[in-house]
C-alpha cells in the first residue's frame, strides 16, 4: 500500500497525535484526515497547526473512541481506508492512581472502537501505536542486549499493562476478524506540545525559572530519546510498508539519564534566552511505586523492513522543543454542551465562557419532556429508549464536556421554590426536573465518555449550632 486516501487518526489532539497530524498532512498531500479526540488531560485542538486546521483536507470530531455510533458514522461517511490509533491515557503516575480508569479507557473503550471497525469491514491498514514499556525493565549494564519484537511482555506499571492488554486485543481482532493491524512499540518520545507533567517540558519550565530540578528516586533512570518527527516518519512508513500482523520497534540507542537531561535542558534554555549558564541543582521527590530503570530496544527490524531509522540528533531536537515552549500558545482544551443554558445560571455561564473564548453549544432537548414529533419518531423504533433522543443530540453536537444547569426552582405565579410545594403534580415536576434529568444526563455522559458537571444547590445544607447564619460555611460532609 502507498499513501492512503482517507485516514482516521485517534487521539490526534495529544502530543504525538498532533505532531503526527502536522507532519503527515504534508507527507501525504492528497489525503483527507479525520481526527477523533475527546480532549482529556492536556490535549488541545490547537496543537494541530493553523494551516492544517484550516485545510479542507482536515476535520476534527470531538468524541470518545468508545462511541460506536459516532465512529461508524465517520468510517462510513468518510470512506475511511486507514486508521492510525494513538488514543490512550498515557500518564504513568495517573495510571497508578486510577488503574481502573486507565483500563477502561485504554482497553475497554479500545475494544468498543475495534468492534465498530470490524462492523465497517473496509479498512485496508490499521497502525496501532504501543510503547516500549510493554517489555518492562532492561538491565543497566553496557553489555545489555536490546529487546527485539520477539521478547515476552513484562509490563512494570499500570499504564504499560493497559498497553499490553490493548496489544492483545489488536492481535485478536487481526487474527480472528481480519482487521489489517500493524503494531508499533515506540521508545520514549520528546517534542513540542508535550504535557508538562512529562520530563522534558517540566524541566524546560524549571530551567526557565532557574529553579531546582525535582527528580524521582536517584535520577539515574536511563531513557532513550526519540524526536517526535522521527517517530511520525516511522508511523508513516509502517502505514505504507508495514506487514499486517507484524510488530516493529521504533527507537534510538541514544540514552541519557534524568540528571543528564536536566543539564542539557538548562544549557539550551539559557542559550535561547541569551543569558549566562545557570547552576543546575536537584531536589529529590517521592518515586513511583515502581520506576523502570531503562527501556533498551532493538530497531533492526524497522531498519530492514521499513527502511526507517532516526535522523534528528538530540541537540537539534531539544533546540526545537525549547524554542516551541518559549513561544506563546492559545489553547482550546474543551467544547461544552450546556443543558438548561437559557436559565439564570446558564446565561451567566454562557457569558463567562464567551469571555474565556471557550466554545459551547446549547442543547435543546428537555429531558423527561418529549414532543409529539420526537415520540412518534421513537414509536417506530423503541418506545422505551427515550435516552436515544439525548444520545443523538450529543452525538450531533460533538462536545467533550456536558454541563447540567437544569433545575426547577419556580413556576406558575411563583418565582421561588415554593412553587414545588403545591401538590402531587408538583412532586412529579420536581422529581423529573431536579432528579431524573441530572441523573439521566450523568448516566448518558458516562456511557459516551463525556466529562459531566452538575450545578447543585446550597439548599442541601441546613443551618445548625455549628453552622449559624453568617458563621462557618458548609463542606461536602455537612449535608443534612
Ligand atoms: N509519549 C511517549 O513517549 C510515547 C511513547 C511510545 C508510545 N506512546 C503512545 O503514543 C500514543 C499517544 O501518546 P501521547 O504521549 O501523545 O499522549 P497524549 O495524552 O498527549 O495523547 C493521547 C490523546 O488521546 C486522546 N484520548 C485518550 N483516550 C481517548 C478516548 N477514549 N477517545 C478519544 N480520544 C482519547 C487524548 O484526549 C489525547 O489527546 C499513546 O497510545 C501512547 O501509549 C507514547
Helices and strands in order:
Layout: E1 6-10, H1 15-27, E2 32-37, H2 50-53, E3 58-62, H3 68-77, E4 82-85, H4 92-97, H5 99-120, E5 125-131, H6 158-177, E6 181-186, E7 189-190, H7 199-208, E8 213-216, E9 222-224, E10 226-227, H8 228-241, E11 247-250, E12 255-257, H9 258-272, E13 282-285, H10 300-306, H11 314-325, E14 336-339, H12 344-355, E15 360-362, H13 372-379, H14 387-397, E16 401-404, H15 424-448, E17 451-454
Helix pairs in contact: 1-8, 3-5, 5-6, 7-9, 9-11
Bound molecules: nicotinamide-adenine-dinucleotide (NAD).
Keywords: Membrane, Transmembrane, Transmembrane helix
Organism: Panagrolaimus davidi
Protein name: NAD(P)-binding domain-containing protein
Q: Can you describe what's shown?
A:
This protein is an alpha/beta fold and 480 residues long. The strands form 5 sheets. It has a 7-stranded parallel sheet, sandwiched between helices. It is globular, with a radius of gyration of 26 Å. The mean pLDDT is 92. It contains 15 helices and 17 strands. It starts with 5 loop residues before the first strand and ends in a 26-residue tail after the last strand. α1 (15-27) crosses α8. It has helices at 15-27, 50-53, 68-77, 92-97, 99-120, 158-177, 199-208, 228-241, 258-272, 300-306, 314-325, 344-355, 372-379, 387-397, 424-448; strands spanning 6-10, 32-37, 58-62, 82-85, 125-131, 181-186, 189-190, 213-216, 222-224, 226-227, 247-250, 255-257, 282-285, 336-339, 360-362, 401-404, 451-454. It folds into 2 domains: 6-192 and 227-253 and 289-312, NAD(P)-binding Rossmann-like Domain (Rossmann fold, 3-Layer(aba) Sandwich); 336-478, Rossmann fold (3-Layer(aba) Sandwich). Helices cover 39% and strands 15% of the residues. Nicotinamide-adenine-dinucleotide (NAD) is lined by residues 10-11, 13-17, 36-41, 43, 64-66, 86-90, 105, 109, 129, 131, 163, 186, 188-189, 195, 449. Residues 10-11, 13-17, 36-41, 43, 64-66, 86-90, 105, 109, 129, 131, 163, 186, 188-189, 195, 449 line the site of nicotinamide-adenine-dinucleotide.
Amino acid at each position: 500500500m502507498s499513501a492512503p486516501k482517507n485516514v482516521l487518526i485517534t487521539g490526534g489532539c495529544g502530543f504525538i497525535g498532533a505532531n503526527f497530524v502536522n507532519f503527515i498532512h504534508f507527507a501525504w498531500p492528497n489525503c483527507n484526515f479525520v481526527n477523533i479526540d475527546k480532549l482529556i488531560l492536556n490535549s488541545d485542538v490547537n496543537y494541530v497547526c493553523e494551516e492544517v486546521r484550516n485545510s479542507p483536507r482536515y476535520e476534527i470530531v470531538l468524541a470518545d473512541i468508545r462511541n460506536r455510533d459516532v465512529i461508524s458514522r465517520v468510517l462510513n461517511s468518510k470512506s475511511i481506508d486507514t486508521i492510525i490509533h494513538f488514543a490512550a491515557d498515557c500518564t504513568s503516575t495517573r495510571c497508578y492512581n486510577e488503574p481502573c480508569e486507565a483500563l477502561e479507557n485504554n482497553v475497554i473503550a479500545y475494544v468498543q472502537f475495534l468492534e465498530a471497525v470490524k462492523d465497517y469491514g473496509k479498512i485496508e491498514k490499521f497502525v496501532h501505536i504501543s510503547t516500549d514499556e510493554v517489555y518492562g525493565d532492561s538491565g543497566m549494564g553496557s553489555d545489555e542486549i536490546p529487546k527485539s519484537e520477539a521478547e515476552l511482555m513484562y509490563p512494570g506499571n499500570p499504564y504499560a499493562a493497559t498497553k499490553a492488554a490493548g496489544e492483545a486485543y489488536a492481535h485478536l481482532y487481526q487474527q480472528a476478524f481480519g482487521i489489517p493491524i500493524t503494531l508499533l512499540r515506540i521508545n520514549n518520545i520528546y517534542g513540542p506540545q508535550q504535557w508538562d507533567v512529562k520530563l522534558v517540558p517540566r524541566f524546560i519550565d524549571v530551567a526557565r525559572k532557574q529553579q531546582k530540578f525535582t527528580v524521582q528516586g536517584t535520577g539515574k533512570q536511563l531513557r532513550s530519546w526519540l524526536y517526535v518527527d522521527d517517530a511520525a516518519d516511522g508511523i508513516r512508513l509502517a502505514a505504507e510498508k508495514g506487514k499486517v500482523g507484524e510488530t516493529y520497534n521504533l527507537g534510538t540507542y541514544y540514552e541519557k539519564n534524568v540528571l543528564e537531561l536536566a543539564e542539557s535542558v538548562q544549557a539550551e534554555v539559557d542559550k535561547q534566552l541569551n543569558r549566562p549558564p545557570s547552576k543546575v541543582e536537584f531536589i529529590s521527590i517521592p518515586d513511583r511505586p515502581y520506576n523502570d530503570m531503562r527501556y533498551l530496544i532493538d530497531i533492526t527490524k524497522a531498519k530492514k523492513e521499513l527502511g526507517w531509522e532516526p535522523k534528528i540528533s538530540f541537540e537539534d531536537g531539544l533546540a526545537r522543543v525549547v524554542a516551541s515552549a518559549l513561544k506563546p500558545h492559545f489553547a482550546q482544551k474543551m467544547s461544552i454542551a450546556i443543558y438548561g443554558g437559557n436559565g439564570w445560571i446558564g446565561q451567566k455561564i454562557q457569558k463567562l465562557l464567551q469571555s474565556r473564548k471557550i466554545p459551547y453549544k446549547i442543547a435543546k432537548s428537555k429531558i423527561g419532556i418529549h414532543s409529539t414529533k420526537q415520540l412518534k419518531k421513537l414509536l417506530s423504533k423503541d418506545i422505551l429508549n427515550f435516552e436515544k433522543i439525548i444520545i443523538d443530540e450529543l452525538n450531533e453536537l460533538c462536545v467533550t464536556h456536558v454541563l447540567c444547569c437544569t433545575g426547577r426552582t419556580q413556576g406558575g405565579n411563583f418565582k421561588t421554590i415554593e412553587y414545588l410545594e403545591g401538590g402531587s403534580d408538583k412532586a412529579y415536576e420536581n422529581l423529573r426536573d431536579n432528579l431524573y434529568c441530572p441523573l439521566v444526563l450523568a448516566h448518558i455522559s458516562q456511557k459516551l465518555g463525556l466529562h459531566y458537571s452538575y450545578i447543585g444547590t446550597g439548599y442541601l445544607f441546613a443551618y445548625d449550632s455549628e453552622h449559624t447564619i453568617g458563621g462557618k460555611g458548609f463542606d461536602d460532609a455537612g449535608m443534612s
